Amino acid sequence: MTLPTLKYNADGLIPAIVQDAKSKRVLMMAWMNAASLEATLKTGFMNYWSRSRQKFWIKGETSGHTQKVLRWCVDCDADTLLFEVEQIGGACHTGFESCFFQAFSPDGTPQEISEHKLFDPEKTYGK
Length: 127
What we know:
By secondary structure, the chain is of the alpha+beta class.
């Protein structure tokens, strides 16, 4: 497998933006390192690096809400990745389809959340 030359940050990470391949809605942003990118490309499912837990994680390993990679791109500076995925279940650990569910007005006022949760995170993650 020949990968493009990527610009990882000082911690060896690169941001990965994930969007639904059909709707084009941005689902989430997470971090990847070279090993998680390699695992993603090998398995066809999204794998990440958790900065808070300092460990590798596979999207859906606990929830079953997987992200199957259909296409991926590198931006013009080679420092950000974009993945188009087939999302099974919600992408956000809070239960929403997307991590970007809270909208704000131009002056910074939070808008009413108009979408419903797809799952109960307490039941899914036991928290």
